[in-house]
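Hey, can you fold this one?
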Amino acid sequence: MKRIKSTILLILTAMIWGFAFVAQRYGSEHLGAFSFNGIRFMMGAISLIPVILIFEKDDIKDTKKLKKTFIGGIFAGLALFCASSLQQMGVEMTQSAGKSAFITGLYTVIVPVASFILFKKRTNICTWLGVVFAVTGLYLISLSGKTKVELGDLVLLLGTIFWATHILVIDHFVNDVSPLKFACTQFFVCSILGLIFAFSIEHPTFESVKMATIPLLYSGIMSAGVAYTCQILGQKDSDPTVATIIMSTESLFAAIGGAVILKETMTMRGYIGCAIMFAGIIISQLEFKKKEKQKSLGI
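Sure. Predicted structure:
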């Protein structure tokens, strides 16, 4: 039952995140990356406060758990700040919700590889085969209709490293923290850093914020407040590698949103690249899923 609940929460996370790329695309037309993220994550943090007062009011008595929650939230917030800032910059540069989502989706391949390098967790042949597929797909997407890889593609690619880091940080702390307080803490950290850079570099105006109100509300309350909380709650009863393959479907939802709402299109080469990359993401997880099934059967 816990696994089913976890799966539903992670699919919901992927769906909300996927359509958030559309909101981020609209938002990038009016606000810089730091301004947009600073405001939306502050919205996400504030939206969680009443929920915390309802569901995690008693956790405040557990000082040890509270300390781990805030420490973990700070580390997660730092990773989230780097990842979300690079992603928003990449969306602004590429002006494509679908493409940005598929490149961002590479974090699902990086997680098991990073787990092997950093924590010596066993990595199977499917993982490395998935890496080959994913890199090939990335190459085709990035060069779709162009002669060279663009800066926006590289910025998004760099962001995937920090998204993978964010997944691993959550996995490290998730069983010892209060999930909602953890999410709220990471949002405040990410928001404060974003606003510091925003007012130092971008100087947002009231008019620009007003123009981006709807994208900010969706990205702040839904993508941050709701989706990241679903991610934390979903990961609590799921291995990080399993969680990544479920959340990788955000690329599909983003592509659907980009095509339907933004009327985005790619060349045939780009669509083939998307298919190959998604296949790589799936392949990189196959053997692990098989082992989980065997374990559930007592083999």
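The CA atoms of residues 142 and 148 lie 8 Å apart. Let me know if you want another pass with a different chain boundary.
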